[in-house]
């Protein structure tokens, strides 16, 4: 398993947890949210938008730090 796939799985899990804690609301109100990955419709799950938000929030240094802690 590569470090990138581990990070991706961790970000997906975090996105799903955050989405649950936010009662299924997408991150549109969050600071620095640049928008959903596609136009919102019934097939887009809110956690997918959280995943995009988290991907944009993790800097290369934070990524390195996360991987070193694993």
Give keywords:
about 70 residues, mainly alpha, about 60% helix, 3 helices
Written description of the protein model:
The chain has 70 residues and is mainly alpha-helical. The chain has one domain (3-69). Helix content is 59%, strand content 0%. It contains three helices and no strands. The protein has helices at residues 3-21, 46-57, 60-69. α1 crosses α2 (46-57). The protein is globular and about 35 Å long. The chain starts with a helix and ends with a helix. The model has no long low-confidence stretch (mean pLDDT 76).
- Tell me the number of structural domains: 1
Terminal CA distance: 12 Å
Runs in which pLDDT lies below 50 for 5 or more consecutive residues are none
What is the helix content? Answer: 55-70%
Question: How many helices does DSSP assign?
Answer: 3
Give the overall shape, derived from the CA principal axes.
globular
Percentage of residues in strands = under 5%
- Radius of gyration (Å): 13 Å
Structure summary, number of beta strands: 0
Order of helices and strands: HHH
* Helix/strand class: mainly alpha
Topology:
Elements: H1 3-21, H2 46-57, H3 60-69
Helix pairs in contact: 1-2
Briefly say what this structure is.
The chain is mainly α. It is built from 3 helices and no strands. Helix 1 packs across helix 2.
């Amino acid at each position: 398993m590569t470090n990138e796939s581990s990070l991706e799985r961790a970000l997906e899990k975090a996105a799903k947890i955050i989405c649950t804690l936010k009662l299924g609301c997408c991150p549109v109100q969050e600071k620095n949210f640049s928008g959903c990955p596609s136009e919102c419709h019934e097939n887009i799950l809110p956690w997918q938008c959280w995943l995009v938000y988290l991907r944009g929030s993790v800097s290369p240094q934070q990524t390195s730090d996360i991987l070193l802690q694993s």
